[in-house]
Amino acid sequence: MKNSSSTRWIRCGVMLVAAGAGLLFSADAPAPAKPVEKLTLATPGTEDVIDYAKYGEFRNVGTDKFSYAIKDRKGLAEASGEGVDPNQSFSKDPTYLDLKKKNALKGTYWDYTDHVCRPLRFYAWAGATEDPGVRQYYMAKGLEDNGYLTEALKAYYAVVLLYPRAVGWSFWKTPLYMSRMALDRIEFLLRKHPELNLGLEGAYVKVEGGFDDDTANDHILVDPGHWVKNPPPPKGPDMATAKIVKKIGGSHVQLVQYDNMHWQLLKDGQPFPIRAMDYCPTPVGKGNHTEGYEVNGSWQLADDNHNGKIDAIEESWIDRNGNEIQDADEPWTSDMQIMADMGVNTVRIYHHAWNKDLLKRWHEKYGTMFLMGDFAGAYAVGSGASWADGTNYADPVQTAKLMELIKKMVTDEKDEPYVLMWVLGNENVYGVASSAKKDPDSYWKFINQAAEMIHQMDPNHPVSVSSGDLYHFDSFIKNAPAVDVYGCNIYRGNGGMGRSFWRSISELSGKPVFISEFGTSAYGKDRTEEEIEAFQKDYHQGNWEDIEYNMAGNPGYGNSLGGCIFEFCDEWWKSEHHPMDVHDVISEHPAPFCDGNNYEEWYGLFSVGTGKNTPFMRQPRAVVEYYRNLWKH
Predict the structure, then answer these.
(1) Whole-angstrom Cα distance, residue 121 to residue 323?
(2) Is the peptide bond before 86 cis (omega within 30 degrees of 0)?
(3) What is the sign, positive or negative, of the torsion defined by CA atoms of 175, 179, 183, 185?
(4) 8 A C-beta contact, residue 523 and residue 604
(5) How far apart are CA 454 and CA 220, in angstroms?
(6) What pLDDT was estimated at residue 487?
(7) Which residue, 180, 85, 89, is CA-closest to 136?
(8) In angstroms, what CA-CA distances link 366 with 315, 317, 349, 532?
(9) How far apart are CA 468 and CA 475, in angstroms?
(10) What class does CATH assign to 273-632?
(11) Can you tell me the distance from the alpha carbon of 173 to that of 18, in angstroms, rounded to the nearest whole number?
């Protein structure tokens, strides 16, 4: 999402990679004159798992004064190998020297972070004049991207050990704590690759005061932990013996916490992991807010062919061979059926239900539940403020209008069997046409008042929010205790949210969490369609596995309730670069996606082809089969 004077581009997507990989860079670097086909390290390290105690001293472990003092630099460099500090042998690497000689690394090192030629992702960063912690992180990424997993683990660990307080900066000028990011990456790789037979026990990076843009108030506490060879498989608690100690909601939908501190959402007494879809099928050529497809619910009402069925939702077809012709073996179906076949059990409604009969039919036929939402003043919706001024959460007139809208939503929907949770807002903390970024306390106090009102009106359903990553999470903790579930949109990369994310929410708030948006663009410059779809599938898999790993009974923190895929199908209206009937391929901003950039119109699990069969035709991408196999079978 981005800030703009236009009201066309204002709904959902990537805004902040608050603790992920997404620094300011461009992926438009020229290809080298002679591409390097394979990364070959000239000087591999002598130790796969470095015994750092032999080469130096750990000081002030577990505090914000942690450091590692090197006493045998030569020995540590030899153990580390090329690409892992303090080893600087890249300066003698023949391939690196040849690339420099031929001027084959034009531009800056940022141009190569996600370059189509993977070896250049490593070599371009070898001589980078960047903060050493940032440089080491991207050297580690280059090693990982080229399949050097053991070396990548050493390089990421070097960030934690040697540069514990290194800070990078995102495209939006928000701080990125490199040691925390590196530790999250280590834990992701260890979980993804059990064949490495390695574990890292006791390690953590805690950033006190790290939920805003000011690094001056930060305290970074580090414990590097210790490496373990052949660790036992991770194991969660036995939920069969767990006892419920807290209940929120009614008999139909209930949020419970167990004596092992894990959380679970129950539907009719049975565990109900949220396997949700973010859904707003705007036809090609149509807008969203400006033409009502979300705020005025047009997508829930549209019947442009006048056959008594709601377009797309109740009437669509899958173009399996991609010829944009409805062949005999491609019968009419519906988006409802398509999602049911994938195992989707929940759909997120961003702003009010406008067709209750439709939702009732959907629920009765497929059992689909709905996350009922109100923007809570995001994008100036409902507050009476202009886009330029934005919603002011310190203005009692504006907040009163918002409360009335929320009250109407709850009054209209609270007794419907399809309601799963109430969800307030959508990335409001990023400040797009609102004051929530500059004045988060007023925003969260308003949300708390709204949550209290909802609980009084409807004690049978939990109340959640849809925030942006962990931005201003400290203000949420302080000002919004009435909110039952912390929800947020998050785009940190193919490793998911990261252990530090789940840990922060668990330790600082004790609340359960659901991911209200996650996903990635299905476009990449100079990539083949197969490469892009493989990346999208891998990205979704890494995110969902992280969500599931932290659900009740699993080895993580037990505070995950599930997540919402962003999104069902591509939406062509979002870009400002071209008209709404053009599928734009101009990057909106950097992001940890296929080529290092975000393409906001390309998030769909389904393409709509050239758009000529809008809104009925669906072309599935590879990730659809992943979810079908995982959730349905």
Answers:
(1) 37
(2) yes
(3) positive
(4) no
(5) 38
(6) 98
(7) 85
(8) 15, 18, 17, 32
(9) 13
(10) alpha beta
(11) 10
d(CA 608, CA 322): 10
Amino acid sitting at position 306: H
- Say if residues 631 and 343 touch (Cβ distance below 8 Å): yes
CB 229 within 8 A of CB 74: no
**Distance between CA 351 and CA 372 in Å, rounded?**
7
Domain boundaries, the chain: 52-229, 237-272, 273-632
- DSSP three-state, residue 36: coil
Strand partners, 632: none
Give pLDDT, residue 299: 86
d(CA 595, CA 582): 21
Contact between 469 and 500 (Cβ < 8 Å): no
Q: Is 309 in contact with 295 (CB distance < 8 Å)? A: no
Q: Which of left, alpha, beta for 425 (phi over 0: left; psi -120 to 50: alpha)?
A: left
For 67-100, how does the pLDDT look when each residue is reduced to its tens digit (9 = 90+)? 999 999 999 999 999 999 999 999 999 999 999 9
Q: How far apart are CA 436 and CA 472, in angstroms?
A: 9
Question: 564 near 274, Cβ under 8 Å?
Answer: yes
Q: What is the 3-state secondary structure (H, E, C) of 137-173?
A: HHHHHHHHHCCCHHHHHHHHHHHHHHCCCCEEEECCC
Token pair for residue 519?
């996903």
Check: CB of residue 443 under 8 Å from CB of residue 394: no
Residue recorded with tokens 């100079």: 526
**CB burial class (10 A; 0-12, 13-18, 19+) of residue 556?**
buried
Alpha carbon 359 to chain centroid distance? Answer: 27
* Parts of the chain with a pLDDT under 70: 1-34, 288-297
CB half-sphere exposure, 123, CA atoms < 13 A: 29
Task: Give the Cα separation of 205 and 163 in Å (integer).
Answer: 12
Gyration radius from the chain CA atoms? 25
pLDDT at position 10 is 29
Give the rounded distance of the alpha carbon of 617 from its chain centre: 27
Is the bond preceding residue 462 a cis peptide, omega within 30 degrees?
no
d(CA 579, CA 574): 9
Q: Which one-letter DSSP state was computed for residue 183?
A: H
In percent, the amount of the chain with pLDDT more than 70 equals 93
Residue 24 has a pLDDT of 37
